[in-house]
Amino acid sequence: MPKDRRTPGPAPRATPGATSGTGTAGLDEVDRQLVALLSADGRMPNNALAEATGIAPSTCLTRVRSLRERGVIRGFHAEVDLAALGRPLQALIAIRIGAHSRDEIDRFRAKVPRLPGVLSLFHVSGANDYLLHVSAATPDALREFVLDHLTADPAVSHAETSLIFEHVRATPDV
Question: Which residues are CB-contacts of 27 (< 8 A; sequence separation ≥ 6)?
């Protein structure tokens, strides 16, 4: 057993100052290390996670399962090269909704994530109501997307497109 290996002990305790509800409540230092490691590499094998955190592989497996069950880890995702899929152009589209009725917002919110090329939809505060992250094959395809799916939508009063020149994915602070 490596000298920095942690000895078995009581169940994880919340970090001092943690609050109840969602977020980091109930996470101890080992949980935080596991989340950080998995955020950087979601395919990191259990034995490597255990070694990096100084816990037994069986304990590591139990802790990762607990993090998933508690909703701290919501899933594992592949980072896809959109250019390799023939969609190298990315944009953020700021959208304003005209009438703020619950029915129109619900319809818009249900429709948009299923549109071709949509990567994410964010409901935001400020002058705009939504930010839409999309990818497209060409500038013409992006223009057609905006015309066919956004400006033609009766709920949309304004759409403003900003091209993304570079996207750098950050790992969350844990």
Answer: 12, 14, 15, 18, 35, 72, 174
Q: Please list, in sequence order, all residues whose beta carbon lies within 8 angstroms of the beta carbon of residue 59, skipping any fewer than 6 positions away.
A: 8, 50
Please tell me the pTM assigned to this model: 0.73
pLDDT, one tens digit per residue, over 63-89 is 999 999 999 999 988 888 999 999 999
SS (H, E, C) the chain: CCCCCCCCCCCCCCCCCCCCCCCCCCCCHHHHHHHHHHHHCCCCCHHHHHHHHCCCHHHHHHHHHHHHHCCCCCCCCCCCCHHHHCCCEEEEEEEEECCCCHHHHHHHHHHHHHCCCEEEEEECCCCCCEEEEEEECCHHHHHHHHHHHHHCCCCEEEEEEEEECCCCCCCCCC
| Contact status, residue 49 vs residue 60, Cβ threshold 8 Å | yes
At 4, is the pLDDT very low, low, confident or very high (cuts 50, 70, 90)? low
